[in-house]
From TrEMBL:
PROSITE patterns to which the protein is assigned, alphabetical: HTH_TETR_2
Residues in the DNA-binding region annotation: 27-46
Domain annotation HTH tetR-type: ranges: 4-64
Keyword Amino-acid biosynthesis annotated: no
Protein known as: AcrR family transcriptional regulator
Species annotation: Nesterenkonia jeotgali
InterPro entries given in the database record: Homeodomain-like_sf (IPR009057), HTH_TetR (IPR001647), Tet_transcr_reg_TetR-rel_C_sf (IPR036271), TetR_C (IPR011075)
Length: 204
């Protein structure tokens, strides 16, 4: 496994090389040369340039322990608004947006790259968001996570409209309506005291 300092150098190198949008032109030789490490160092941790690209992108949303960062301050609505805002900033960051758009285009015709994208980038992020919904008591947390993230990706990919603060609030409202009634119902049911058996008259 690559050391933290080596990983940082490799991630910076691959993002710089991929910034032109030419994903298919990336090579282990080119990444190693840009990072100042040997190819053997790369192959001890990664099997292909695609693996490195997606690990580098995922690292931008991870903490020091490698866990995907999802807001969890205790208030779900505020957490989701923060998550959506952070996701939008990530997608529209000039430093990585050309790369993200190039990846999105490439995975339409490259099955191997699509598999790498799904397993190394999308799945860890998706599961972390679904876990936050599960903690909040949503009946189908995976559906809530897909609706939350899917609408963002659709708007970004097709450029159907701007990501205004009003849109963020409205989008979170729509997603909240899916699970809040069920979550509230479950909470109320759990809090409701069980009916006590009727008192019986003492035997005469």
């Amino acid at each position: 496994m690559a050391r933290t300092q080596t990983r940082s150098k490799v991630y910076a190198a691959v993002l710089a090389l991929a910034g032109t949008g030419r994903i298919g032109a990336l090579s282990m030789e080119g990444i190693a040369g840009r990072a100042g490490v040997s190819k053997q160092t790369l192959y001890r941790t990664w099997s292909s340039p695609g693996d490195i690209v997606f690990d580098a992108l995922l690292a931008r949303s991870q903490d020091a322990d490698g866990s995907v960062l999802v807001p969890d301050a205790g208030e779900l609505r505020a957490d989701l608004e923060s998550l959506v805002t952070d996701t939008v900033h990530e997608l529209t960051d000039p430093a990585v947006e050309p790369l993200l758009r190039a990846v999105t285009a490439s995975i339409q015709t490259d099955q191997q790259l699509a598999d790498q994208y799904r397993e190394r980038l999308w799945r860890p992020q998706f599961e972390a968001v679904a876990e936050r919904f599960q903690k909040a008591g949503f009946p189908v947390p995976e559906l809530a996570a897909e609706l939350l993230l899917g609408a963002i990706l659709h708007r970004w990919l097709l450029r159907t409209g701007p990501f205004t603060s009003e849109w963020v609030v409205g989008h979170v409202d729509q997603v909240m309506r899916i699970g809040i009634p069920a979550a509230a119902s479950n909470t109320a049911a759990a809090a409701k005291p069980s009916a006590e058996p009727a008192a019986t008259s003492p035997a005469e």
